[in-house]
Amino acid sequence: xxIRLQELATKPGYRAQFDYTIDLSQEEVGFEFPFQQPVRxxxxxxxxxxxxxxxxxxxxxxxxxxxxCGKPVEYDKETDVEFLLVxxxxxxxxxxxxxxxxxxxxxxxxxxxxxxxxxxxEMSVLCDEDCKGLCPKxxxxxxxxxxxxxxxxxxxxxxxxxxxxxxxx
Length: 169
Ligand SMILES: [Zn+2]
Ligand SMILES: [Zn+2]
Description:
3 helices, 17% helix, alpha+beta, 2 domains, two-stranded antiparallel sheet, elongated, 5-stranded mixed beta sheet, binds zinc ion
């Protein structure tokens, strides 16, 4: 959704509220397509004596996989965003992360908000804190029980020694 700053500026104290959904089902994050359901963007752009603030909450239903066992995991997430929209940066503004530089009068909210959602995505989600993951050898889901593989990787040089020791028994 687009908002025109010029219109805001001519109406002091005016608040432009928005609440809409967008389809991000083609958006890839970490080799997954986590937004199978529409993402909702809700908030307002307000002009307080020339200081234009964008504050929003992004509601997303995330569909992903457990980083250890690959089982599907779904959860709801909310990301809060607040920016002061500015047309130019002052010298000492460079370190501030609450400013968003707008390049034209027409501000595309999606372009500001969606990157914030992506940045806020959890990099590794587990189906359960205690998920045991998959056996690296046979691929069995270790949450379902042990597979009996010896999973400790043995250094090939030690393996030779191991063989030697076994033959001595
Ligand atoms: Zn898991
Ligand atoms: Zn195994």
